[in-house]
Amino acid sequence: MSLTNCRILVVEDEFMVAHDLQLELEEAGAVILGPEASIRGALKRIDDESRIDAVVLDINLEGKLSFVVADAMKAKQIPFIFASGYEDEALSSRYPNVINCRKPFVTRDLLESLIRCLNGVIKD
Fold it and tell me: Which domains does the chain show, CATH number per domain?
């Protein structure tokens, strides 16, 4: 499964989860932006980067819900998926079309979800 040259922003506050996710995405060919561990850092990165192809977003960052980050990505039309321990129902009413890869996730499932969220942008 290839994400070759896709610029993926990882927003995750748990160091080991972010690190492992970064390694897996790099192995799939992605260029990793971040990881960002805070809402403030994620919002700054979204504003500063010239190109973000997709985002993997944890819902709970440092004890705060990251909906403001999700809303900023929606406003900029940046595709994203959630990687969260939250139930799908908790997210589906606010973000009905966003995939939630429940933690602990299987890497292959997360990669497949990320590719689906890119909506055919990736050409193998």
Answer: 7-117 (3.40.50.2300)
Cα dihedral 6, 40, 61, 70 sign? negative
Residues 6+ apart with CB under 8 A from 86: 59, 60, 100, 102
For the chain, count helices (H), then strands (E). Answer: 5, 7
Distance of CA 77 to the CA centre of its chain: 13
Task: Write the pLDDT tens digit of every residue in 34-86.
Answer: 999 999 999 999 999 999 999 999 999 999 989 999 999 999 999 999 988 77
Alpha-carbon distances, residue 9 vs 18, 90, 102 (angstroms): 11, 23, 18
Contact indicator for 4, 110 with CB cutoff of 8 Å? no
Query: Which residues face 33 on adjacent strands?
Result: 9
Q: Is 78 left (phi over 0), alpha (psi -120 to 50) or beta?
A: beta
